[in-house]
Task: inverse folding
């Protein structure tokens, strides 16, 4: 590595939430720390396993570049979820006006006397995020518990009995009052007829005495 770092790289570990038979991507951000034009190239020890976009380019002074690394779907999980794959980010200062089409492998060859900055990145497999567990509706503090079906049945039966009693009591009272009124009427009528008979007997006796 050169004494002067050309690029800032974040993160230095590529973390993939590993899942079988599923493509997984993670992002990598590059930052040009210099006031120069910098060409970069991203290499990996397993080129058939990963897809890097863009895998090379030209960065303007003090600019940033986002790189997406995609791991192809895997059929088998590695032992103990340990990954030995590595990535290498190479960068070199280039002249102004150089474009991505002008990038060649010779630019990053140290044998040609070029000053090449290199940063190695690790690959780490992590467990995929677990979906949140559903929160029960009754878990809110201070909420009143809802009655169950059996509670509703008991409540409805109690209300029905109370309503029946409330309806029956006035009916019984009204029946008793009617009977009392009928008896009083009959009693009043009996007393009136008795008085009339006595009166008629008195008049008859008086007439017979006079004659």
Result:
């Amino acid at each position: 590595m050169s004494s002067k770092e050309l690029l800032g790289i974040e993160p230095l570990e590529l973390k993939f939430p590993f899942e079988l038979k599923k493509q997984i991507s993670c992002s990598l951000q590059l930052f040009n720390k210099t006031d120069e034009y910098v060409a970069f190239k991203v290499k990996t020890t397993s080129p058939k396993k990963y897809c890097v976009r863009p895998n090379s380019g030209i960065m303007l002074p003090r600019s940033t570049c986002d790189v997406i690394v995609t791991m192809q779907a895997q059929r088998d999980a590695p032992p103990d979820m340990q990954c030995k794959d590595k990535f290498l980010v190479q960068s070199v200062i280039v002249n102004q006006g150089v474009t991505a089409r002008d990038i060649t492998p010779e630019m990053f060859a140290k044998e040609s006397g070029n000053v090449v900055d290199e940063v190695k990145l690790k690959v780490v497999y992590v467990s995929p995020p677990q979906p949140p567990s559903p929160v029960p509706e009754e878990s809110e503090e201070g909420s009143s518990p809802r009655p169950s079906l059996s509670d509703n049945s008991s409540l409805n039966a109690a209300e029905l009995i109370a309503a029946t009693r409330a309806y029956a009591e006035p009916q019984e009272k009204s029946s008793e009052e009617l009977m009392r009124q009928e008896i009083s009427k009959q009693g009043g009528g009996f007393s009136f007829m008795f008085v009339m008979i006595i009166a008629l007997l008195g008049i008859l006796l008086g007439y017979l005495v006079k004659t």
